[in-house]
Amino acid sequence: MAKGLTAGELRVEDQDTLVQKLKEAKEELFNLRFQAATGQLESHGRLRAVRREIARIYTVMRERELNIVTVEKESIDG
């Protein structure tokens, strides 16, 4: 998964891509948690970063659901 995704980058993606990125981020978070539990985790900061990426994806999805920000609107403004 790409490192450091911003909300602006996510807003221009289509819904299927967002769902795929969400799935990848959740898998990565699971693996990081497993590594942390077994004492093999090297970068604890990555846990926080992945949780924030998941939150950003959910936020963008919710904005679209509520028609707060649309793909077309962000493309014109951005």
UniProtKB/TrEMBL annotation:
Keywords on record: Ribonucleoprotein, Ribosomal protein
Superkingdom of origin: Bacteria
Pfam families assigned: Ribosomal_L29
Cellular-component GO terms for this entry: ribosome
Gene3D superfamilies, alphabetized: 1.10.287.310
InterPro entries hit by this protein: Ribosomal_protein_uL29, Ribosomal_uL29, Ribosomal_uL29_CS, Ribosomal_uL29_sf
Family in the record: Belongs to the universal ribosomal protein uL29 family.
Protein name: Large ribosomal subunit protein uL29
